[in-house]
UniProtKB/TrEMBL annotation, chains A, B:
InterPro entries registered for this protein in UniProt: A-glucoronidase_C_sf, GH, Glyco_hydro_67_aGlcAse, Glyco_hydro_67_C, Glyco_hydro_67_cat
Domain of life: Bacteria
Segments forming domain Glycosyl hydrolase family 67 C-terminal: 440-662
Name this protein carries in UniProt: Alpha-glucuronidase
Pfam families associated with the record: Glyco_hydro_67C (PF07477), Glyco_hydro_67M (PF07488)
Length: 665, 665
């Protein structure tokens, strides 16, 4: 990093996301020109000092702290602040950040910045405590080192190539990574896994030959309080180690992993650990040796434990060679069936990483029952910032409202804790950035990354308030910009849901790439994601009484609530029940009329967006404005295609006309 | 070619197809050891002499021809034999081939070989005249020079890589091409186009930089009486020539093509000409300049005419960005609408190349109405030997019965000529070979290539008799082998039809690659191939009275026959009419019961094949036997998948149960 704290290099035209290089053009940027005194020794403190200086603050000696406008200093033991926490005290003349540890100073600095740019303190004078809800706040990159023939450089990436790799090798110039690390630190992310969970041959070598390169990446992240993790292949002892097995109970295998971990730690002393997708969609795993996933995960965990490393073990295990004719198998059941019996059998440094729903990041799924089932295990909630099933960053979809609903879900009913409170293994999400000029393809998708970090830190934050922060940081305090973006994004997730697969049934996307409609695209596939639509009705009977029994994987009251047509929420009706098209929802509409109505309404909502956006022209960077305009046009085209294919499909199948006589093909 | 006439080289393990290197292991190979006297000077005669010697005949001087067992000599003018024709006279002691020209001698030699291996003369003593029904008998290769990211080395190739190219360049070793040329000559093929009709940037350079390599290929083919053609891009004056246009009426464009043709002829004196896919599926064409396809084709033809070259101009022109919601557009109409008005406007050295059906090589389509509509034009019939829509050479499908039906079609009714008689531009087909050990992936698919050549020469040949020839040449005279292969192949096309898309509706294949079922795979696509199935019925109304009017493109009596439900043939019902599932076919069955019955029956037929084949083990090359066994297993798996998806789709949609109560999912 250059001396002024702002990364420079090949791509200075890259958009700064929510951290402009200069505060001069941000209204109310009250920090500029102020004096700041920072107490503390070490790299993270140097990072904060450099950042503050680069943004125009005046560093003063701690000895002169009494006169400084901003003081950053260690908290008292009595404050009982954790190493990442801080307290922010605003007085009339001075602002004081008291930190629990160096990371707390870093996060406190960015909180100051956030509030300054919003012309706050919006919480007024006094002290606020800031403590992360989760110790582990992680981003997973599904980046490949070598361009994959089908998946490309970034699996499920919709923002260009990888910022870490360039066709076959680690990048020499890490300028972009430095910017990225700063952005992540500003939203509290403290862990990054730098390669795809599907570990191909080239990527497996990150663990061995490429360690010097990984160490360079880790060094950049370390400067911003972020630890680096690697996705590894469970078969590595076989494929890299030359052993005849990767059986977790084999001593040579255990030794190989221990030695491998030692080599990693010799190069990267604060290495975070391994991410493992085992026995999943063709990846190797302990099942090949008749071992349990606990045995597999613990073996790896023991190799890492002496140095403080973690294993993130994904629970995304199911039969992906299912026969569509087999109604007895239910993919939704799989993670619970595999993992719930293992609760309590995982070592302390194992995190079982569970996708938020039982299928795969659909716009609407019930919250996974694995999380409440494994209270004796450190379970992480896995979200997807990259918009695999939510429009590929071509559609404007702000995901924070969905995530907030998930985090707020109370698995044991109204009197029980929220999901966010029982997730003891932190929050993980798949990143949405690439080497695109705007990082995320759709510039408004930056808000998802921002919101993810903020919610991982504090799951009680209001999605609209988070959006306010992101807008102020990114565009300044222009009220028309703020209102315009809110009007595009606030309801965008529900709008997307309304014009795509209805009522929680999911998976009506094109099997090629997961963009655009294909109602029967997965209906006869081996992937276990079916809707069973016939001329009379649609939906998957997952009840205990007559279906696959999936509803019974929930604790009360949800097992009863989902089981019954009387109580199942409308938005999940078809996930849990097969019903006639004439079935009447709680909303009063029939299923088929609901499908028609929501699809027409969804398109109507999307059709309003271009004018909203057009009105903001001239109020922001022209290239960014143009990019969003292009994507809104594509979203409109695609939404119409969704509407027409879905409506036509159900009209042809049901023969029930639209009550309002609108055009169905 | 080495001196002994049999090509040698890197791949001597390659299967010889129907021309074994040695006749010793063929029963009744009565030619071996016989003496042969060949009159004639020139390369083709040398080819025949070398081939005869290599197969164990004794060449004797023409001066000693009186004592020779076989005499090959020029015919008298009174015989009126064309340059490719010959008469074969079998006496008790001697066989005489009298040829019209050098090619006639070559084809006469292979006829001798064919009959000898079948322990014939099966026509007994006396004289038979052999004259090709079509002057132009061509194979098109959809081979790419550079591996295409989606289509690979051979577009729609199911037999490995190209025998001409190896990832980015022409092969140095043309041993395999030499074998191939000999095989083609043996079945009378006299024209080969060596590159994909979709001309990508790399392939465009075959016309310029690569001419020396093309000349090497052409030299190999020339030795076997075959002229070489190139697929060219209509935009070549722009992309290769640096002109600002490729307008066919532009003088600079005309000059560029004339000079280009001159350069080609300076390198390849017998160059065959250009194949052009213009204004089709994204390829450039004259429409961009407001010119007709006659203007485009004639411009190219005039560049080639001075040297005897041809233009093969494909009629596969349609709107491939159709909106599925638009019922007014019918892709089936497109070729006729574009080309019929141009009848009589094409130069004599233009061949308009028409796919056999109006869509795209489906297992069942009506014969294209373009052919009878263009009696003043040299129209070629285009077939597809490569099994794009008929099982990818994983399914055993013998296509000769389909081709024979097409060739026998009488467009003007029972008193009019057969299609084969009005096709004045010859027969063209897409080849099915690759660098696979057995050339064609499925060894039994060799029979399709063999039958194609034989039918192009003589469209009145019986498919079963052609199969007898191929079996005898390939496997010898083992009756059990012959009966087994007949029992697998004779009905294989109708069997394939029975378990795939029903009643001529077509296109229920997976859009990715065209293998396996996807009933709605093309239903909402831009490709214009829809079935319009709803809960009440299925099919495309192409009548004049209420539909797209396509039926009216046929002359009487077919326009009336196809128009009416009373007279439309069952097998084309859904191509021409949208009918209820309860509509009763001429066969007495309802549409939906027909679908169920044929799909169960198709699988039952396929399930019998492995045992038939297993009984032939030990009677042929073990590797070939094993390869076919593997493919029959895949065919069975795939046929079951077809049956179950199709039947389930129509059961779910119609709600009408199978009369016989069989399992539908």
């Amino acid at each position: 990093m250059p001396a002024d704290g702002i990364p420079e290099g090949e791509d200075m035209t890259v958009h700064p996301m929510w951290l402009p290089d200069d505060l001069a053009d941000r209204e109310g940027a009250g920090l500029r020109g102020r004096s700041i005194a920072i107490t503390g020794e070490g790299d993270l403190f140097e990072t904060v000092r450099r950042d503050a200086a680069a943004l125009g603050l005046r560093l003063v000696d701690v000895a002169g702290a009494d006169g400084a406008d901003v003081v950053v200093e260690p908290a008292d033991a009595a404050d009982a602040l954790g190493p990442e926490s801080f307290a922010l005290t605003r007085g009339t003349d001075r602002t004081v950040v008291r930190y629990g540890g160096a990371s707390g100073a870093l996060y406190g600095w960015f909180q100051l910045l956030r509030e300054a740019v919003q012309a706050q303190p919006h919480r007024g004078l006094g002290t606020t405590r800031h403590e992360p809800a989760h110790e582990l706040r992680m981003l997973d990159h599904w980046d490949n080192v070598a361009v994959h023939p089908v998946m490309g450089q970034v699996e499920r990436g919709y923002a260009g190539g990888s910022i870490f790799y360039d066709d076959g090798r680690l990048r020499d110039d890490l300028t972009r990574v430095e910017r990225y690390a700063r952005l992540l630190a500003s939203i509290g992310i403290n862990r990054v896994a730098i390669n795809n969970v599907n570990v191909h041959a080239r990527e497996a070598r990150l663990l061995t030959d490429d360690l010097p390169g990984v160490a360079r990446l880790a060094g950049v992240f370390r400067g911003w309080g972020i630890r680096t993790h690697l996705s590894v292949s469970f078969a590595a002892p076989l494929t890299l180690g030359g052993l005849g097995t990767s059986d977790p109970l084999d001593e040579a295998v255990q030794e190989w992993w221990a030695e491998t971990a030692d080599r990693v730690y010799a190069t990267i002393p604060d290495f975070g650990g391994f991410v493992v997708k085992a026995d999943s969609e063709g990846q190797p795993g302990p099942f090949a040796y008749g071992r349990s996933h606990a045995e597999g995960a613990n073996m790896l965990a023991r190799a890492l434990a002496p140095r403080g490393g973690m294993v993130h073990w994904r629970a995304f295990v199911y039969n992906h060679r299912q026969d569509w004719r087999d109604r007895s198998t239910d993919r939704a059941r799989a993670a619970y069936d595999h993992f719930a019996p293992l609760d309590g059998h995982f070592d302390d440094n194992v995190v079982v990483q569970v996708k938020y729903g039982p299928l795969d990041f659909q716009a609407r799924e019930p919250v996974s029952p694995v999380i409440p089932a494994m209270r004796a295990t450190r379970v992480a909630l896995e979200l997807q910032v990259t918009q695999e099933y939510t429009g590929h960053q071509l559609h404007a979809v702000y995901l924070a409202p969905q995530w907030r609903e998930i985090l707020d879900f109370r698995p044991f009913g109204d009197d029980g804790p929220r999901l966010a409170e029982i997730v003891r293994g932190g929050i993980v999400a798949v990143s949405n950035v690439g080497d695109d000029e705007f990082w995320t393809g759709h510039p408004l998708a930056q808000a998802n990354l921002y919101a993810y970090g903020r919610l991982a830190w504090d799951p009680s934050l209001d999605p609209a308030a988070i959006l306010d922060e992101w807008i102020a940081l990114t565009f300044g305090m222009d009220e028309r910009v703020r209102d315009g973006i809110h009007s595009i994004l606030d309801e965008s997730w529900r709008t997307y849901e309304s014009y795509t697969a209805p009522l929680g049934v999911g998976f009506m996307v094109s099997p090629q790439g997961h963009y655009g409609p294909a109602v029967d695209g997965y209906e006869y596939s081996p992937w276990g994601t079916y809707h069973f639509a016939d001329r009379d009705g649609i939906g998957v009977d997952r009840t205990v009484a007559t279906g696959t029994g999936y509803a019974g994987q929930y604790p009360s009251p949800w097992r009863e609530s989902y089981e019954s047509l009387e109580t199942v929420p409308d938005e999940l009706l078809l996930f849990f029940h097969h019903v006639p098209y004439t079935h009447r929802l709680h909303s009063g509409s029939t299923v088929v009329q609901h499908i028609y109505d929501t699809h027409f309404a969804g398109v109507e909502a999307v059709e309003k967006l271009p004018a909203v956006w057009a009105a903001l022209e001239g109020r922001m960077d022209a290239a960014l404005h143009a990019r969003v305009s292009d994507r809104l046009a594509e979203q409109r085209r695609s939404a119409v295609e969704w509407r027409d294919q879905i409506n036509t499909y159900f009209w042809r199948k049901s023969g029930i006309p639209d009550e309002r006589g609108r055009t169905i093909y």
